[in-house]
Amino acid sequence: MKRFWSFFVALLIVCNFSFAQQKTQQQRNLEKRKEEIATEIAQMERLLQQQMRLKGSAIDQIQLLDNKRYALESLIDLTANEVQLLQRQIAESNSRIDDLKDQIEVIKQDYEKVIVNSYKRKVEKNKWLFLLAADSFKDARRRWNYLLQYASYRTTQAERLVRKQEELQQISATLEDQLKQKEEKVEENRRQQSTLIAAREKQEMLMANARKQERAYRRELADRDKERKRIDSEIDRLIREAIEKANRERLAKAKKANRKDGFVLTPEAEALAKNFEGNKGRHIWPVEKGIKSIGYGTYADKLYPALKHFNNGVTIATEFGSKARAIYEGEVMNVMISRQGIKGVYVRHGDYITMYYNLQDVSVKEGDKVVAKQSLGTLHTDKVSGQTHLKFYLYKNTTRLNPEEWVYRL
User: Which domain holds residue 100?
Assistant: First the structure.
């Protein structure tokens, strides 16, 4: 019997099984999201280094650090989820190993009983003598069928045993890999926590310095709010004028009453608007690389929470030399130039309008047809703050929309 089990052990060693753990879809999703966040954090760090090197605005640095903290917290949560998932898998692997060991033991015991019984019946010593000892032809045929069933059973049990041993070896290798992964994830979580603490300390230091210069800080905020309101007013005016102009030209041909609340669409423009709307939540980013520094709507000031600000669009921080790009096909409706020489491009998609502001130069003109991802121009980099950002707006006729609801993961 010992020689028999030694044979199976030798067989398993010679086979040299290899096993690659299959990752679940949940694990793949977590890893993909972590890679995206890690890319965002790396970009934030580059922007922060640029800001500090150029002695940029404290407001911008505080905002970037706040975004970095949020991203790090998301990364820590994702890593914690990975650890929890691995813990469940480890528990399942341990349970499966115990179950397989029990099954292997039962198979061994059953197999031993069969062999012992066959020896008692002298089947193993001489199969032909076992057949010849039959009392009749009918008894001989019965014994022959028994021998066939016996041989088949032995083969089946042996194969079952090998399969179970293979599975046990594979799951044991999986368990070892899972335990290693868990250790790596726990260590990764510790590093992320340390980075988060450092980011908090840096932000608190910047905020403390800014509070010491409250008058300058508030003056900068007031200047920014004034400029924002002026730009928003200019955008609204240009959109209204563009709608009135387009409708005059369109309705002059149709001889209908003029509408002032929105574009009168041709069948082609109506189809374009429908397709644009159908992509809600899936539109590409208006820059190739960037991070959302200020979202849409009302937000509290980082230093003085009682002080509220409002953003009509979304502000995206990016790198020097970055270009704004169209998020969808359309037609350039207007190119605006501010008093400071900063440019903005309006792209019409039926009765939807996307607006890209803070360009240093533009590569399109009014009436040009554009496609998704087409460059509209190079973004302006502020010489004082060193910041490069895009102000991105979205309208349906004259109604402001939240770009975060339309652009993928904005």
Answer: 18-212
